[in-house]
Queue: 2 jobs
Job 1
Amino acid sequence: VTSDFAIRIPALSPTIELIVDADTLRRHCTDYNGRNTGQALAIVRPGETGDVVKIVALCRQEGVAVVPQGGNTSDYGGSVPAATGRSIVLSLSRLNRILDIDLTNNTARVEAGVVLADLNRKLAEHDRWFPVSLGSEGTCQIGGNIAMNAGGNTVLRYGMMRDNLLGVEGVFGNGDHYADMQPLRKKCIGYHIGDLLVGSEGTLGVITKAILKLQHLPKALVTAWMSAASLNDALQTLDMVRQHLGERLTAFEVINQLQRRVIERYQPALKDPIAQDYEWAILAEFTDTAGQEALSASVEAALAAALEAGAISDALIAANGAQRQAFWRIRESVLDANNAMGWAVTHDASVPVSKLPAFAERVDKEVRAQFPTARFLAAGHAGDGNIHLGVFFEKADFDGLADFKRATQAINAQVFQIAHALGGHFSSEHGIGTKHRMPFLTYTPASNLALMRVLKSALDPQGIMNPGKIFDTAEAV
Ligand SMILES: Cc1cc2nc3c(=O)[nH]c(=O)nc-3n(C[C@H](O)[C@H](O)[C@H](O)COP(=O)(O)OP(=O)(O)OC[C@H]3O[C@@H](n4cnc5c(N)ncnc54)[C@H](O)[C@@H]3O)c2cc1C
């Protein structure tokens, strides 16, 4: 890197901001869970999408790595640079304009740095919403959501980020600008090259703009909390509510008993809505753009049928917004409660929905055979097969972090193998980052990996885009 590199960046354009103070550098070089840290030459914040082309060109010339960063809410190490300090963090946060909302076309054109919740606040003024819903929505950005192919609570009905995207604009690591920004649901454009940026975790290029599919804001909403004796019963309930409500089922989450106890220990105010002991809680949500009464009646009929069939033992429907929030707060406290209350090894695997009971049973049994003090956690999106299974240890069970890390490796290997054997995949919505590079190399077919390397070397021949992530095991450029 030439000595005047940092000075040359802001000289590229008056709208580029360069930040080198130690506090800001540290914040941008540490990810959400604080476990992944790195070093950067500077934080660079473009003010116009055209700035990104110039920044990437200069970085290519200088051999400096570019780590695109959105809200920095991902937790597998993908959003922070490596320790070598030969990178810039390219923060998209100033590219945060909603460029237009076309109500008849039901689309929005946005810059990559728009925060998901800000977009939905604006869309609500027009009776619309963008139906990707994450616990991090107050901070994460559309560009980050695309780069991670984010999922969340509504995948069951609306799919992942990829399913809600009509086009992108970006700059690849080879310097090429790419735009597919026509707001069309049908278009023959040859190779959909922009699709390569979905789930690419910043390793191919920088996403600068996107065209998003919108939905009308639901007018009717019902949220229910139910108790079930087993995952099989929960899946029978899933089938029954789908029979009655079809597409109106928006979320179907489950939480096992130990996970609810850990949450209650963390925050006693987050009480289980059903007082008696039971194994699996189901949190289901139903929405409709038409009448509240009709939706409520259909949900009540479905839950009555599930009660009668013995699939659930109790059901509560949220009486108001505050109760709905209380239900969801329990679900959304999982991550923080596990981090605070003990040592937890949690996973982001998916299996076909029909295989969820076998997956949970095998993980519980096989992990405990190896670690007798382990206790089995589960909380997740059962409706789409992405249940976050985990293993919980009391803090007293380990002498220290190194000891726990060794156990984590052994548990991960077991869980990934079980998921794979059941036709599943070890990673679903939290990405690969640096944390899961090794299982990615293990479980991706060799010919798929070879094709990915062909694409990587064509679109980022110098390897400057977010080095060391996904399948790149080198430390950094
Ligand atoms: C409380 C909490 C709950 C969460 N729940 C969910 C959930 O339910 N579902 C889910 O999918 N995720 C979830 N996440 C993970 C995370 O919020 C998502 O992955 C989110 O999409 C990341 O967006 P971001 O803007 O923060 O991206 P960052 O964390 O900044 O970056 C993520 C990756 O994308 C790349 N990137 C970012 N912006 C760009 C860009 N413009 N161009 C190219 N590459 C870019 C980065 O280099 C990095 O590799 C959760 C996180 C938290 C903290």
Note: The radius of gyration is 23 Å.
Job 2
Amino acid sequence: MKIAILGFGTVGSGVYDIITNQTSPLLANIKVAKILIRKGKEKKLPIMVDDITDIVNDPEIALVVESMGGLHPAYEYIKLALTHGKHVVTANKAVLARNIAEFEALAKENGVFLSFEASTAGGIPWIASVEKARRIDAVSRFYGILNGTTNYILDSMDEREEDFADALAKAQELGYAEADPSADIDGVDVKNKVVISCAIAFNSVVDIDSFPCFGIRNIDKRDIAYFKRENRIVKLIGEASRFGDKYEAFVMPNAFTRDAMEATVRRNLNIVTLCGSTIGELKFYGQGAGKFPTANAVIQDILDIFSEKTEYTIDVKRKIDYDDTQSKNNYVLRTDRALTNPLFRAVIPFEGLYYHHADGLTIREMRGLAEQAGEADKRFFIIKQADF
Ligand SMILES: NC(=O)c1ccc[n+]([C@@H]2O[C@H](COP(=O)([O-])OP(=O)(O)OC[C@H]3O[C@@H](n4cnc5c(N)ncnc54)[C@H](OP(=O)(O)O)[C@@H]3O)[C@@H](O)[C@H]2O)c1
């Protein structure tokens, strides 16, 4: 079976290395026939091309791995591959989260598959496991640490009492964080993964713009110290729950008690949990990124497609509505000045900052408070008291 790889960076080269090193006899029938690189770049391998039409018009290529990242031209190239009857395997959560319904519909129309295990939780077999759980159970909820970069930063701040800027710089030095870390620290990367996980868990494509996303850009080492006093540790969490034909989702820092399993997830590791009606709670832990773990997930998808184990698992026409009044949680809002609002149970000053505790709020009420905080202090920080 011949495949092509679009983009020869961390993930693309990892896929190429594993396939060409033939670590498993199952890979013997897979051949990387073409690799797309940018125009003008040196073609270091004879199979490198710089024109997508060389790939989509090649009748021998059955499957295309998209590992370029970004929205464009990934969007156009995935569509081109699907309409030319090629299966597509992608690690690109950004383009998927915005276009998954269109891609899925196009794949079905053209009798090919779109698979994306690597896009969410990297090397952890998360998508496949949710698909499997869903064969028997209604998945009512999932949540987890889905971004290794922010977990590394939060872990460093907690362990070494580092400032956010120092922890971020270290993450960049180690290659965990990009030069522009916005997608990670503002929670956008996790948001993309929540949309993709919802599609599988709830069998429905949810609107990425419907639900809130708070990141860790404004976290201060005093916040870490404040929650340490309460025997808690901060983690960035993506989560979603389904209530019949309604769902709720959000991305937000959570303060976990130190005996929670999430509290023990160190460095850049990930953990993600699903809750099913008969299976109960299942946790998946491991490397959510990295060249070989991610490439491994891509190749698992390739093997499943070529051995005809893949199925269409998303009903793109099924709609579930976002409803931010379903669950109630306890939140803490930190600003540089004391605020007043009847929803606050307590306002606690700590090292020049103010921690406003509000209990039993819906997401809608929490968003209202966050707006109030943002008007008073642009660098406000909001966190949920995790009670999973
Ligand atoms: N790295 C991970 O651990 C990981 C984990 C899970 C998912 N992912 C996802 O996988 C995707 C790839 O990530 P990565 O880390 O491998 O990124 P990367 O190292 O930056 O590699 C991307 C490669 O694609 C090339 N490229 C970009 N646009 C192109 C175009 N128009 N034509 C041809 N080549 C193009 C880039 O070339 P230039 O160098 O010339 O720009 C680069 O070689 C992203 O969507 C990412 O979110 C990554």
Note: The two ends are 45 Å apart (CA to CA).
